[in-house]
Amino acid sequence: MSETILFVLFVTACVMCDIINRNAKENAAVVTAYCLLTICALAVVISLGLGVDVPNPNTVFETAYKMIVK
Amino acid sequence: MEKVSNRQLTGIIVMILVSGIMMSGGASRSMQDSWIASALAAILAVPFFLMYARLADLFPGKGLFEIAYEVFGRFFGGIIVFLISFYAFHLGGMAMKNFSEFNMDVSMPETPQLVTLIMFGAATLYIIKKGIEVLGRFTDFFLPIMIFLILLMNVLSVGKMNFSNVLPVLKSKPEDFFSDVFSAFAFPVSEVSLAACLMGFKKNKTKTRKIFLYGLLVGGALLVAETLRSITVLGTHTIALTYYPSYVATGVINIMDFFTRIEVIVSAAFLFAQTVKVCVCVYVFSSGTGSILKSTDYRTLAVPTVLGMIALASVVFKNTPDTYKFLQIYKFFAPFFQIALPAVIFAGAQFYLKRERSLTAPI
Fold it and tell me: Is there a contact between B316 and A65 if contact means CB atoms under 8 Å apart?
């Protein structure tokens, strides 16, 4: 769990630095993508920290491979 | 506008190729012929590297994404850009996981992988936030050191080499041999396709062909030399028992019982190369998604890209054997992003330029 807290602190530090040092005015779509990606990353790592089983994205490729090749 | 010299771009290509040294020869099916498989993969890549170079020459000052938008328009170009960006994100996550897994396996087994990923992510984020010029200078500084270290390892290993380990030559089954050729082709040789996105930063107006071919020559030679060293030092049976043949082959170096345990040197070379590869992946994803969303700067999405890659790296593989297992699947889908999509852009560019010429030609 301690590493999850470290990650949350890292995310906070990165986002704070980005907000403080922002020099370009971005549109709403970019800001939305920024927030979504960050929240997804946080959700995955916090879920892992809480012991929730997060699906492996590679299973998509593995399934496709089994369907096509085998 | 940021500019990167030809030498730095060549260096980036070499770094991407060398990022595969740690796993080269590992889990190989063609055993003693895996070094020939690596060499053949590099030779097979030549036409595709020439294609990336030709694209960059046809549209000077533009990267792969800008070319895709110009040739196919906003919608279809956006689809291609999205697919390549998605591949870069996935590759970046896998590369980060490879590094943290390697770090845990060989030096810091008690350290949580997330800590390694955060440290590695912070370093790549810093480089990307400072700009591609910094990545170029990083490569410029570390590439000679890395080449020296790899060559030094080869020279110091000469006493331990047993060249009968490469015999019999080409006696492996054709299906095993070509399976290894395609594995080496997909990882790491064709991953250089992402470097085509950086060609918009090229400073000099010389032919891009030289950048790709010199990069392939140096990077391919280092890759083959490392694979050959692992085979001659360890032998195929020992390699089959190890996950990181290059690292283990360095571990047996012993000069007069004084110069020993120098595996860290090959780890350093791997670290430099992997850093550059992940930086390129972060740049490609953040600039690709940024261009789809009409962002003004590729750095804007760098932070969430790195955070997303760290999250992906946390779930993408369970352990090192899982990495090797996935390589067998990776070699089937990766060429779609590495070869097919750039080939579609290349074909479209030929038609586009032909039409442009016919429209502007005097009647």
Answer: no
- Name the residue facing A29 among B293, B304, B316 (closest C-beta): B293
How many independent structural domains does chain B possess? 1
pTM: 0.94
- 41-60 of A, contacting B, C-beta below 8 A: 41-42, 44-45, 48, 54-58
Expressed as residue numbers, the domain containing B193 is 6-360
Burial of residue B4 (CB within 10 Å: 0-12, 13-18, 19+) is buried
Shortest Cα–Cα distance, A38 to chain B (Å): 5
Among B131, B164, B81, B139, CA closest to B274? B139
Report pLDDT digits (tens) over B207-239: 889 999 999 999 999 999 988 999 999 888 888
Q: Domain residue spans in chain A?
A: 2-69
Site of tokens 């390549």? B84
Q: Considering the domain boundaries, does residue B1 fall inside one?
A: no
Show the tokens assigned to B233. 């030092």
CATH number of the domain that residue B49 is part of: 1.20.1740.10
Answer whether residue B296 is part of any domain: yes
pLDDT: which is higher, B284 or B208:
B284
State whether B315 and A26 contact (CB < 8 Å): no
A29 lies within 8 A of chain B by CB: yes
Rg (CA), chain B: 20
> H-helix or E-strand containing A30?
helix A28-49
Q: Cite the DSSP H helix spans in chain B.
A: 6-18, 34-44, 46-58, 64-106, 113-130, 132-156, 174-186, 208-234, 236-239, 245-251, 263-292, 302-316, 320-335, 341-360
pLDDT in tens, B166-215: 888 888 888 888 988 988 888 888 899 999 999 989 887 778 899 999 99
